[in-house]
Amino acid sequence: MKFSSLINMALAASHAAFAAVSSSWRFTGNPKGGLRDITFPFKMEGASHKTGYFFAQQFNFQGGNSIALCGVRTQPNGPGGRSVVRADFSTYQAGSTTEDSNCRGDVDGGPGVSCSVAFYSDYAAIFNILIENVSGTTWKATVINTSTGRDIRIGTWTLPSSTGGINSNDAANLGLVQYSPWNTGRHYCGKGTLPRTTVIMYNPFSRTSGAGNGILNQPYEIFDCVTAQGFSTQKVPNGWHIQCGYYSAPSRRSEALMLPDAAETAEEESRDSVRS
């Protein structure tokens, strides 16, 4: 079977309908038992501060039969114009469970577990989403602001006992740029229909012995708006800059009062998280 066919099958199974852009990724190594941790870096500088875009990385687990996703979402500014980021961590695997207060026991009304956290941060930061095995088949995701060092728990879930580590080289391993409103009904291609956005997705990396280097391949357009969504991409050090869309919603970097990095505590983390 051609690799392009495998990619299409992976996208069809990914619940990522109407994603605008995709990019496959892999590791040069293939450790037995899979990866025990993985980190996906994102940078949203230049993205509009409105609900809509989801910059995601898709992966799956040995012995599983469905995918998982993590990523960051654009959000409207909070009080005082503070920039808000939302981070997600989800599995579509039936039989998964959670006891985490950031999570719920379904994904889009179907099987699996979805976790999310919203927090204040400048979009110019690089956000690392670290996914790591806690014990057995339990996995935890943390989002780390590399500019401040602040880390915030996204959530934790437990997969069925038949699953192993994260596959390091699989057709389902994909970076995705989704515009969520397109997933809820009819949409149109062309100018005036898709807000402009930018993101940098970087090579994934892992501490797992034998993993080797992570490689994110060149992004490309997918699905029905190919050539009609203002797409462009450019290689940057350790990743790819992606742009799509035609018009810009009002956006500015937050001038919010951020808490001093040196004084960060659990109490401050709680206070700086956005509560719905």
Which topology does CATH recognise?
Jelly Rolls
CATH class category label: Mainly Beta
Total separate domains: 1
The outline comes out as globular
Oligomer kind: single chain
Low-confidence stretches: 1-17, 249-271
Structure classification: mainly beta
Report the span from N to C terminus: 46 Å
What portion of the residues fall into strands of 2 or more residues?
35-45%
Helical amount: under 10%
CATH architecture: Sandwich
Order of helices and strands: HEEEEEEEEEEEEEEEEHE
Biggest sheet overview: 10 strands, antiparallel
Average pLDDT score: 84
Counting DSSP H or I runs of 4 or more residues, the number of helices is 2
Mind telling me the C-alpha Rg? 18 Å
Total strand segments: 17
Summarize the structure.
By secondary structure, the protein is mostly beta strands. The protein has two helices and 17 strands.
Structure description:
The chain is mainly beta. The protein has a single domain (3-274), classed as Jelly Rolls, CATH 2.60.120. It has helices at residues 3-12, 266-272, and strands spanning 19-27, 37-43, 53-60, 67-74, 84-91, 103-104, 113-120, 126-135, 138-145, 151-158, 174-179, 197-202, 214-216, 220-221, 232-236, 239-244, 273-274. The strands form two sheets. Strands 1, 3, 4, 5, 6, 7, 11, 13, 14 and 17 form a ten-stranded antiparallel beta sheet that branches. Strands 10-9-8-2-12-16-15 form a seven-stranded antiparallel beta sheet, with no helix packed on it. A hairpin with a 6-residue loop joins β3 and β4. It is globular and about 50 Å long.
